[in-house]
Design a protein that fits this description.
This protein is mainly alpha-helical and about 290 residues long. The protein contains nine helices and no strands. The N terminus and C terminus are likely disordered.
Length: about 290
């Protein structure tokens, strides 16, 4: 009996395909179930986050910004990818005048935004915050980004024009300040230069005055013939005392001293001679007549 190999093989292939399909279904069913659970969980998170945002908006309407901030933070914590919580939290900071915090939150919103509308709103508010901080050139760039995402917004175009005029005014003021600083630096350098030149002139004048004084002192020490007065006066007065008497040179006796010394020697000699004569007279025996 012949066996239809084609039919048999065909039946075998069909049975094998059904088995593979069954295995695939077994694998896909948990995956599909898990994905469905994730979607449900995400929907619940989105719903909760939106509820928190709604509550925050109601509180902002009653100007209860502190409570509104708490609600917006809850929304961000529940679903960090939800841009509404971040965007509205930035707005609440802006209303309270906390511009640094507002700028931070709107920058986050611009990064998280997925649609042009969301990006436009975030960059528009960033421009307004920068204008409040007097950062006009940065605000110009923010409004440009907003207009790239929505060129039809008249309010953004108006704010862009205001920011551009402000940036030009600030640039003109900066250029003027830079020019003034350059002038002041130049004047300071000129003053230092003049000061140095004056000090050099004063030093030269002092040296000249000292030279003239030395020359004058030298002339005062000379006589009419150009000879040093000290030398002449020294020769004339070296042997004279205050009374005009000649002074002895060093190591020599004056005539008066010699005279006094001779008189003293003569007096001493006279005393010695008198003493010797007296001794002679005392030593002569008197001859007496012998009495027999």
């Amino acid at each position: 009996m012949k066996v239809n190999i084609f039919t048999y093989n065909s039946k075998f292939k069909i049975g094998q395909n059904l088995k593979q399909l069954f295995v695939i279904c077994l694998v896909l069913i948990p995956t599909i179930t898990f994905a469905q659970d994730k979607d449900k969980e995400k929907e619940l998170q989105l719903q909760k986050a939106n509820n928190y945002v709604y509550e925050g908006n109601e509180l902002v309407g009653s100007e209860d910004y502190i409570s509104a901030e708490m609600e917006y933070r809850k929304a961000i914590s529940e679903l960090p990818t939800n841009i509404a919580g971040t965007y509205n939290l930035g707005n609440s900071y802006y209303e309270k005048g906390q511009y640094d915090e507002a700028l931070f939150r709107h920058s986050q919103a611009a990064e998280k935004a997925t649609s042009k509308e969301e990006k436009h709103k975030a960059y528009h508010n960033i421009g307004n915050i920068l204008m409040q901080n007097k950062m006009c050139q940065e605000a110009v760039e923010a409004f440009k980004n907003a207009l790239r995402n929505d060129p039809t917004d008249d309010e953004t175009r108006y704010n862009f024009a205001i920011a551009k005029a402000c940036a030009e005014q600030q640039q003109d003021q900066q250029d003027e300040n830079d020019e003034q600083e350059k002038e002041q630096d130049k004047e300071g350098d000129d003053d230092e230069k003049d000061k140095g030149e004056n000090e050099d002139k004063e030093d030269d004048q002092d040296k000249k005055d000292e030279g003239d004084q030395d020359k004058k002192d030298g002339d005062d020490q000379k006589d009419d013939q150009g000879k040093p007065k000290d030398e002449k006066d020294g020769k004339e007065g070296e042997n004279k005392d205050q009374k005009g008497q000649p002074q002895p040179k060093q190591g020599q006796l004056s005539p008066q001293q010699i005279k006094n010394l001779l008189e003293a020697m003569n007096n001493q000699e006279q005393k010695v001679q008198e003493k010797m004569n007296a001794e002679k007279q005392k030593g002569v025996k008197v001859k007496t007549e012998k009495d027999w």
